[in-house]
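Hello,

Our lab assistant flagged a job as stuck in the queue for most of the afternoon. It eventually completed. Since we weren't sure the result was trustworthy after the delay, we are filing this so someone can double-check. Below is the sequence as submitted and the structure that was eventually returned. Let us know if re-running is recommended.
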Amino acid sequence: MGSGREMVHGNRRTALFLVVCVAARAASAIQDGLLPNGNFEEAPNKSKLNGTKVMGRYAIPHWEISGFVEYIGSGQKQGDMLLPVPEGAYALRLGNEASIQQKLSVTEGMHYSITFSAARTCAQAEELNVTVAPESDVLPIQTVYTSSGWDSYSWAFKATSSVVSLIVHNPGVTEDAACGPLIDLLAIKTLQPPQRTKNNLLKNGDFEEGPYIFPNTSCGVLVPPMDEDDYSPLSPWMILSSTKSVKYVDAAHYAVPHYSRAVELVSGMETALVQDVSTVPGRPYRLEFSAGDAGNGCVGSMSVQAYAARASVKVPYQSQGKGGYKRGVLDFTAIANQTRVVFVSMAYTMKPDGTLCGPIIDDASLVAVQNHAARRFLL
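-- returned structure --
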């Protein structure tokens, strides 16, 4: 009898140990940076590959896959087209309706941003659906902003539980599964909600709080258009557009006017960078900001238009592509309890390699004009 009880207890302990081990494998402890096997350098076992097609739901370490997923090596060709890999030796290609997912341990109630690199292949209107339930968005990836064909994208979510599933899915726009987008380098960052200061009614006016930027890549990170109810990777700034993005850049690779981060308006008049601010109707305010070039070889006549209430100002900048900026100032009187601050590039600019570029925005501040200054402003 005793040995039977011991056997039962032993089996229970073994079962509990297995459950704990499975749970530990199921969710990766969150840390800023690359997700576990986020660069796909941990390869599937050769027995799980049929050519480039991955066979088996759990064949790729740390990932669960569904549908037609290919394991692509750097320099591999598809017809006459070379399939590059942005870093390391391998990337994935998602066929129609294919997806990859990974469970993550997070802090409930916190906000996180996801950064990943993607490239379209032979389909022209490719897009990727990124989901952390209950939030989900389709990110357009048909516009290419780099000469390599690879761009880094960002997306943000609020954790509604302590374990979440990140899913990247190709909704499919072509009948040819081999025309799906390539994906590589998935990373995460915990976002700290920006706070308003007494010297600036704008939150995150210096753009220091934003998505993860890969330290070894110089292409910046695209912040795609979003519904106004979504949480922005560049919170509380929103990007309003149909299919175009803005680019989040760092001082390690770009000429940044203030501190270490800024935004490059790479899509001309098709994209607006906006933030809604609480204001007092009838009170005068002053908006100031830096506008210039990112020192990335973007040469030509640039122009940033800023709007607030019924006022606007245009700041022209003749770029030599070597960095530099000028300050813009917009004085206005609030007409409502909430004022939308808007920045738009009024010109389309391209670098010699044909990729889109544009003016840089940084160090934006909004203050209420004091009484004695207000009298001078109104005279």
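-- support follow-up --
The delay was a queue issue, not a problem with the job. The result is valid. Confidence is low (pLDDT under 50) at residues 5-25, 372-379. The domain at 28-191 is CATH 2.60.120.260 (Jelly Rolls).
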